[in-house]
């Protein structure tokens, strides 16, 4: 059975993107990016909502300006199986499963069949899966930036019950706060 994590970089005031869904947080530097590479190395499945899929598709293509750490991330990302939850995405490419209906049941079946870590990205998708009890761990990567508004880490109305599982200082003055699903 898979271990489902929802984690994203967020501002100190809890936002992951602009109101329009554009990433406005500073990109991770090489040392922090290496942390994400190490996390991705142990990930068995990536699950994205449509907006996060559109952002993350950048890693599918080649970019000659990528440094060594970013190139490694791209390689790991390309090799990791992916699921996109969307009613509008029609063809996401090889190695990508598109889920249009019965999201909770479909992802629940995948969780039962997959061993290892399953990474979920996107506030709305996380709320849907979290309400169904499918998210085991919440990872808040807090950057020392205040945005003053935007898209929150937790979708409106989603208030998961959690318990503190740990904290870690990461490069770039980022703090990782980990919370397990509470009872």
TrEMBL record:
Domain named Bacterial bifunctional deaminase-reductase C-terminal: residues: 3-176
One Pfam family this sequence matches: RibD_C
GO BP annotations, alphabetical order: riboflavin biosynthetic process
GO MF entries: 5-amino-6-(5-phosphoribosylamino)uracil reductase activity
SUPFAM superfamilies per record: Dihydrofolate reductase-like
Protein name in the entry: Dihydrofolate reductase
Species name: Microbacterium thalassium
